[in-house]
């Protein structure tokens, strides 16, 4: 019985190496801001979440924008209420960029997608990437292969192999545009900034 269970677990956590020529080019500023926001959540300590956006030119996804939506968060969970999604879509439209990915943290080393991550991902479009950063991002998110990187395709999130991540994800020197939609009056952020 145990053998069979392990057999299924193997498939559940298997990472794949898709054959394509897509390149995900992430501006260094995007990494810096994402680190910062996720670490702020980590201080609470809560799971945190941001969205990445940019543009696609031929086979290259240029990731230049970070959007921090208003969330509901706790030690083991972070979700984006429907009302926040409206503001995210508005920010995408105002900045003339498209949504490329979501990034969220987990408390420990586990960087697979949970069942909740699969179900509650607010945008499920083919090609969407989803990064899971371990340990509340306490040691930053580089190198990228330390994170779980998943991609939505064929109606499900699949884990991308380290080999794929190494070849298809690059960090390039560049600024980032940041839209912070978090409600600064919320107790979580007031506590953090010491105004409560
Ligand atoms: Zn998760």
Question: What's the helix and strand layout?
Answer:
Blueprint: H1 2-12, E1 15-16, E2 23-27, H2 28-43, E3 49-57, E4 60-68, E5 72-74, E6 77-79, H3 82-94, E7 98-105, H4 115-120, E8 129-133, E9 148-153, E10 156-160, H5 162-168, E11 169-172, E12 177-180, H6 187-193
Bound molecules: zinc ion.
Protein name: JAB domain-containing protein
The gist of it:
This protein has 196 residues and is an alpha/beta fold.
**Overall number of strands:** 12
Name the CATH homologous superfamily.
Cytidine Deaminase, domain 2
Average predicted confidence as pLDDT = 90
Distance between the termini: 54 Å
Main sheet properties: 10 strands, mixed
CATH topology: Cytidine Deaminase, domain 2
């Amino acid at each position: 019985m145990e053998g069979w269970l392990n057999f299924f677990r193997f498939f559940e956590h298997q990472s794949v190496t898709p054959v394509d020529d897509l390149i995900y080019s992430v501006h260094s500023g995007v990494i810096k801001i994402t680190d910062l926001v996720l670490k702020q959540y980590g201080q609470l300590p809560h799971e945190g979440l941001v969205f990445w956006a940019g543009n696609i030119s031929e086979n290259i996804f240029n990731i230049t924008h970070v959007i921090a939506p208003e969330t509901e968060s706790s030690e083991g969970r972070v979700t984006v209420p429907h009302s926040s999604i409206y503001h995210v879509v508005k920010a995408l439209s105002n900045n003339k960029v498209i949504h490329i990915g979501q990034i969220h943290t987990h408390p420990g080393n586990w960087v697979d997608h949970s069942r909740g991550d699969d179900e509650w991902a607010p945008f499920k479009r083919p090609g969407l990437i989803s990064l899971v950063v371990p340990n509340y991002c306490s040691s930053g998110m580089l190198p990228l292969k330390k994170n779980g990187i998943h991609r939505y395709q064929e109606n499900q999130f699949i884990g991308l192999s380290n080999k794929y991540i190494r070849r298809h994800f690059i960090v390039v020197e560049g600024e980032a545009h940041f839209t912070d939609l978090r409600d600064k009056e919320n107790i979580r952020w007031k506590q953090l900034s010491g105004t409560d």
